[in-house]
Task: structure prediction
Amino acid sequence: MRLMTCRLTLSLLLVSVFCLAASSGPWVQAFPPRAQAVQGTSTNWSGYVVASDLAMPQPGSVTDVKGDWTVPPVTPTAGNTYSAIWIGIDGYSPFPGTVEQIGTEQDYYKGAANYYAWYELYPAASHLINQAIYPGDKMSAEVSYSNGQFSLTLRDLTQNWKDVETQQLNKALRNSAEWIVEAPGNIIQPLAQFGMVNFSNASAIINGHTGTISDRSWRADAITLVGFNGTVEATPSKLTNGGGSFSVTRSP
Result:
């Protein structure tokens, strides 16, 4: 998921999967965000980004990002709607690049809510995590980099399971960290009615320094999801708890 406009080179991936928390439904691959850097809006992201410099993030500076959230219930909609919640490294750079991320999906598809977990090292395809998740589950995630490898960890503290993926992505820029709610899909799909997502325990390591989103050692950008018609669809709150917590609220 990269935070730039007009990337339409990959086709939409719709894979039917069996979700233990609900009936079978689609898996919509997450893709790069489409927003102008530092402008604070996106057509598919809402949340926070931190980087050494928002206009020109420093390559190789980010080695870790952490965050917790609670899986929100999605309410019925007239059509199919989708939402991805994730934390990750990369995606905000104005240059074509990479994203290393892990999170959950909350969709409403063919009259049923579907919940599942996934990870992705963009531009490679997303992968499902073979574990059940449910609305109300407390999730804890981390993406870290060391010695040429990424470790992507997702814990369901409610269901008491843990998934760790170790992957290599040599061309990763490692220049930003993110806490995001997304309308996924290369052709951006309608955003699910998830109500509110609460992020907590958000931290990053940039140039060896550990801090929360509001740490003075870097710059933060709060991103509002605005649809192509100009309608605000999801909005991040102000930071609380020393910069380690915020919420993303879905517009009615």
